Amino acid sequence: MSSPHDQSPGREILDYIDPTLLLPCDSEVWLGALQDTEEQDLLGHFVLPAGQGLEARLELLESHVAAHARTTHLPRDLFDSRHFGNFFSPFNVNTFARIFCRKRHYQHTVIHWPTFSLEKAALPLLMVVALTGATYSFHSRNGPGHITAARSFYRLADSYVFHELRKCVQGGASTSNIAESIELCQAALLMYALDTLLAGDEGVQCAAMTERLPALISTMRKLRFVGCRHDPSEDWSLFLQREQIIRLVSWAYGADCLITMSFNTPPFFSLLEMTGDLPCDPLIWDSDPSALESLRPFQDTTSYCIKGLMSWLLDDNMQSNDILERVPLFHLHIMLCAIQPIIFNLHISLSLPSQSDRLLRALATWRHLWGNAIDKLPDDQRKWLGVAKHVPDIEYLSRRIIEVSISSHADSSQYLKRVPSHTAREVHEFIREFVSRT
């Protein structure tokens, strides 16, 4: 699908997927009918008109971004005060935040919306939340106006967000600024996700994969976020802080794994370091702080880490399978991501033929587990699967990568040469040749 800026046919169209086509339109462009009590609780503090506090924060954001634009080597036309003020108006930002909240399942679920405040959020996060909501704001009556405007800010926002992330690391983490460090990492992860949508701009996408995500991963290591675990005795405040960290690391790990699959880029994370907890039940995550104590008895106390889960999946024995039957849906999602670097590393080390049967059995087990987990999911939760509904397609692609890699057809695929690429052209050609025709 071609970029809105370039509808002419060409090979570059293989690299572009417009996110607006992936989402259902709201019945009302600005808010739409609240779907249920959960929606009302999450969106309640966005329904009120934006106050003076938000206006002051946006003025401060503009001054910070303007100063950043003046002191960096960015093109001078990237920052225009009038254009910035019109787009990042209190009304627009409040609206975009609502849209993002409603469509949170289609993006990395790292923000705790019941406690999120536009007036208190770190400025980089405030900026990226607005841009993400605008990017997902398509409506049939209004067209892609806000989406086009949002994309014009991506380069500027990217530079600003990762500049602030570097300052965070240089300043060092402490108890007093850990909350801000978390929000800066959230902004960086969400900005990375936006960068990857600009597949028509190879420079931005290349930087996202080779500079931005590695910078975020390095920052999280320095902040000692990787390996974070919950403690049964923690209070709500500490639980929320740790859960935000756990979600950041989990989603960044998943993104790193999918880059390896899609672009043949060696992974930046090591599976051996993934010893931290995986995200909690969405029932807990989407709850108001006052409800935590009443919900805790229903929380699964079993603690899983991706390193342990992958060990069980690859073991392929009955005892491991019994344990894996209890694994939640999101954990299975991350497990499928985690198998991508394993396939990649075995392939480039010439070990894939000897390990292919083991990997194919693991994928078959995963598909069985995923089907059972979906069957157990209540009907009212299936509409919130977001990108997870497409995860089985990745399993099938993974299976075909293994099968073709050990076949006589391997030499005919540019993708299977495992040369790093900054576009998705090679994997698309592999899909067209070896997946779509099967």
TrEMBL record:
<protein>
    <recommendedName>
        <fullName>Transcription factor domain-containing protein</fullName>
    </recommendedName>
</protein>
